[in-house]
Design goal:
The complex is a heterodimer. Chain A has 2 domains: 209 residues, no CATH class; 52 residues, Alpha-Beta Plaits, CATH 3.30.70.20. In chain A, 50% of the residues lie in helices and 3% in strands. Chain A contains 14 helices and 2 strands. A two-stranded antiparallel ribbon of chain A has the order 1-2. In chain A, helix 6 crosses helix 12 and helix 8 crosses helix 10. The two termini of chain A are 22 Å apart. In chain A, 51% of the residues are buried. Chain B is mostly helical. Chain B has 2 helices and no strands. The radius of gyration of chain B is 19 Å and the shape is elongated. The relative contact order of chain B is 0.08. The chains are: A mainly alpha, B mainly alpha. At the A-B interface, helix 2, helix 3, helix 8 and helix 10 of A face helix 1 and helix 2 of B.
């Protein structure tokens, strides 16, 4: 299961970012494919990106509501959320893949749940993704994507390539860029010690998808008639959840490790309730 | 005894709603607008704006 998931993550990363040569040319891909919102966090200003980030597109719309609500972006996010829930996080997100690869580095690991910090991602969602673009638009007539501008580490990766190979852009790098690089470095370093720290504590897109985990079409089904309570699923869960007591919890990224570990096959993917 | 599996009605309803929203967005030019935003370099997104 985990090998299949890794392969899917790599393929998804390449599908989202097929224009790899652009990384070294300091320019973006432009084309009609940018009209497609991809399910995972993938900045449209990454030189290799083929599609648009749903979170960035949402903020752009909220920062410019005089053009009306972008029902296409809202519908896309709702579609992915209702279909997958956080399955997107576990299987279809490039930044999740990067964090997981760094976690493989043989260093001491933090095994604490850090449950209280899990609420932070909802703060980032409400303040940076929703409130700030709307408030700034209301005050100045034009808002901006605040989460992208101040925090998003995935966009910073694209920024590093663009500033590295484009002198004009490099000359524009200022304090905000430096802070973003520090945030990116912090998250990447943290990823070597904590499993997916960005996904667990920061990602607003994961926060949105997590709200739909209990009702999404693709879900984890728990059969209590066959469960013996051995606890094998809880020991293997990388998000530090108890899959028996917290089946389809908002923090569950549907990685399937619990499904693979259960000796009684009490856990499985399902489309039915 | 097998527990009766029921269709996931909330998810189906939300999926239908999302398809309606996407279709409405396509009809009102929002896909083109998203494409335009995606093709323009978002300086804020990469920390430069």
């Amino acid at each position: 299961m985990d090998k299949r998931r890794k392969i899917t993550q790599f393929i998804t990363t390449l599908i989202y970012n097929p224009f790899l040569t652009n990384l070294f040319k300091g320019k973006l891909h432009t084309g009609s494919s940018k009209g497609v919102c991809v399910p995972g966090l993938n900045c449209y200003s990454c030189p290799a990106a083929a599609g648009s980030c749903p979170l960035g597109s949402l903020q752009q719309n909220l920062g410019n509501l005089k053009k009306g609500v972008n029902t296409y972006v809202l519908g896309s996010i709702l579609f992915f959320a209702a279909l997958f829930g956080r399955f997107v996080c576990g299987w279809l997100c490039p930044f999740g893949l990067i964090q997981e690869l760094l976690y493989k580095i043989p260093l001491p690991k933090c095994t604490k749940r850090l449950k209280a910090l899990g609420w932070l991602k909802y703060v980032f969602l409400i303040v940076f993704v929703i409130a700030l673009p709307i408030v700034i638009f209301a005050e100045k007539g034009m808002g901006y994507p605040a989460f992208c501008k101040y925090i998003c580490p995935q966009g910073t990766i694209g920024g590093l390539f663009l500033t590295g190979f484009n002198e004009t852009l490099r000359n524009q790098a200022g304090l905000t860029f430096v802070i973003k690089v520090i945030i990116l470095a912090g998250i990447l370093i943290c990823s070597a010690f904590v499993f997916r720290p960005f996904c667990r504590f920061v990602c607003p897109l994961g926060a949105i998808y997590g709200l739909f985990n209990k009702i999404a079409l693709i879900r984890i089904k728990y059969d209590k008639t066959t469960c013996t309570g051995c606890g094998a699923c809880e020991k293997v869960c990388p998000m530090r959840l108890n899959p028996v007591k917290e089946c389809n919890h908002a923090d569950c990224i549907r990685c399937g490790k619990c499904i693979g570990k259960c000796p009684e096959k009490s856990l499985s993917y399902s489309c039915k309730r | 005894m097998d527990k009766k599996k029921t269709i996931n009605l909330p998810a189906i309803i939300l999926l239908i709603l999302s398809i309606i929203l996407i279709t409405l967005g396509a009809y009102t030019g929002k896909v083109k607008e998203t494409e335009r935003k995606g093709n323009a370099l978002c300086l804020e997104c990469i920390g430069l704006g």
